[in-house]
Amino acid sequence: MRARFALVFALLLQLPVVARAEWMSREEAIMGTRVYAELWDDDAAHGAKALDAVMEFMRHVNALMSHYLPDSELSLVNARAGVEPVPVAPELFDVIQKSVHYSEVTDGAFDITYASVGYLYDYRRHVHPTDQEIKAALPAVDYRSLILDPSARSVRFGKPGMRIDLGGIAKGWAADRSIEMLRDRFGITNAIVTAGGDSRILGDRRGKPWVVAIRDPFDRSHVVTRIPLADVGVSTSGDYEHYFDEGGVRYHHILDPKTGKSPTEVRSVTIIGPTATDTEGFSKGVFIKGPVEGLKLIERNPGLDAVVIDKNGAVTYSKGLEPPPARAPQK
């Protein structure tokens, strides 16, 4: 009897051990913000590898596109593209190309060359340029003067003093690419990847929607609304992330390419759309255009919805998100 038990026990030891899990998540500080990934995987080891891959990719994007790192490819472009074409990695070229598209569809409200003025601001040290400094730098803000050569995959600046910053598109783009990797390489069917205010959702929460909360920009401990979502991108741009107040004026990181200054009509914009690259690009465009013209822009682009909170706290929804009219009480 003892021998038979030992044999059965030995056979059990030889069976593969499958580690099972439900929702798994990982959070790291990358790209100057909070990067968060959550996914469903029946195999804990497989899910951990998938989460590792997301964070590794995010670090790769940061190494290419950070304007804080002096040895990033973006920093190299800003240092050399004013005098010669600079060949860049496929990922960086793709993001710059896409930025031009969002500049075109937002009538120039989104423009990565805003950095030609933006570098004069230091929000940590409460530094802002004078009107004279803005006037001198503003002519270099012009996405149409970005010279892109797809065959050489190179970037050149067509105006002196031009700089670019991808902070308004790179996080959404990276969230999209991460979701594609989880789906295509790891077979994941339910996940979310968030980088700062930009998220891409894959599937739902296994029969339930993901619920995205939009915070009150006047009191971030409160929530204005919650929206159930599945298989979309969502981005929020607000004037409360990188800013300082001085003399009754809020200087924040979203700059109008036409003025080189922070818009004041809007406090928060949330965009929902097919991809996080879409939603991040349009969130900046709507913020800069303001509540009226910004929502007109959304209505001209099917597949997008918006929630806009203006300087007075009024909340406006695009037509696709408007709540149904209240029913009259029955007599």
Instruction: Count the E strands.
Output: 15
Kindly report the spatial arrangement of strands forming the biggest sheet.
1-2-6-7-10-13-14-15
CATH architecture identity of the largest domain: Roll
Structure class: alpha+beta
The CATH topology assignment of the largest domain is: T-fold
Which oligomeric form is depicted?
Answer: single chain
- Beta-strand fraction estimate: 25-35%
Helicity range of the residues? 25-40%
Mean pLDDT across the residues is 92
Query: How many domain units?
Result: 2
What does this structure look like?
Helices cover 33% and strands 26% of the residues. The chain has 331 residues and is of the alpha+beta class. It has 2 domains: 23-64 and 179-321, T-fold (Roll); 68-157, T-fold (Orthogonal Bundle). The strands form 4 sheets. The chain has an 8-stranded antiparallel β-sheet with strand order 1-2-6-7-10-13-14-15, with helices on one face. Strand 1 (23-30) and strand 2 form a beta hairpin. The protein starts with a helix and ends in a 14-residue tail after the last strand. The relative contact order is 0.12.
Helices and strands, with pairings:
Blueprint: H1 2-14, E1 23-30, E2 33-40, H2 44-65, H3 73-80, E3 86-87, H4 90-105, H5 115-118, H6 131-137, E4 146-149, E5 154-157, H7 170-184, E6 191-195, E7 198-202, E8 210-216, E9 219-229, E10 233-238, E11 243-246, E12 249-252, E13 266-273, H8 276-289, H9 291-299, E14 305-310, E15 315-317
Antiparallel strand pairs: 1-2, 2-6, 3-5, 4-5, 6-7, 7-10, 8-9, 10-13, 11-12, 13-14, 14-15
Helix pairs in contact: 2-7, 7-8, 8-9
